[in-house]
Amino acid sequence: MSDLQESFARIYSACQRDLYVYVYRSLRDEGAAQDLIQDAFVNFVRIYQTRPLPEDEQCRMYLFRIARNMLINHSRRFYNRQVDLVEGYESGPASAKARTADVADGVLNRIQNQLDDRLLQELLEGLAEDQRTVLILRFQLDMRLEDIAGVMDVSVSTASRLVQKAQQSLIQAGRKRGLRPESGS
Question: 62: burial class by Cβ within 10 Å (0-12, 13-18, 19+)?
Fold first, then answer.
């Protein structure tokens, strides 16, 4: 394997999971998310086969920028909604009574989590693309403002303002649906 191939493999293994999480949380479609990150890496390799590779952190930012642009293009072509189904229950303790109670609690917790996730996804879908992107990058992927600025191709102060504005928009959208943010949030 050449040095360039090893570098691409190292970058892929370092960034693949976070890119997948970002894209999946935006699309809620496993197959489309896998296809999109594969296309992002193919584009990245095509661009940097003949150019010197930047530092690892910049490679990560470029990959997120490519994925973001591909998400924008994807969302312009398709508008998909995926219904999440309740998964099967997990087996509990040996006692049938305890197992039934544990299963019921687990199912109820899973349903509540799915309802919360679905509500959050609906609220995020109502936001502008850049607001949705910065919220996913900041709070679901725990990216620093410097990294978000690189992905969004803006200054750090602009990225900070985008995050704040997106948070306010999300809160307002939630209030329109009758939700109240918890104190301390």
Answer: buried
For the chain, the first-to-last Cα distance in angstroms comes to 49
Number of Cβ within a 10 Å radius of residue 49: 10
Region for residue 67 given its phi and psi (left: phi exceeds 0; alpha: psi -120 to 50; beta: otherwise): alpha
Question: 0.70 cut: is pTM over it?
Answer: no
Angle at 42 between CA 154 and CA 13, to 5 degrees: 80
Q: Return mean pLDDT, the chain.
A: 78
Q: What is the pLDDT of residues 58-86, one digit of tens each?
A: 889 999 999 998 888 877 665 433 333 43
- How far apart CA 159 and CA 165 sit, in angstroms, is 10
Which amino acid would we find at residue 110?
A: R
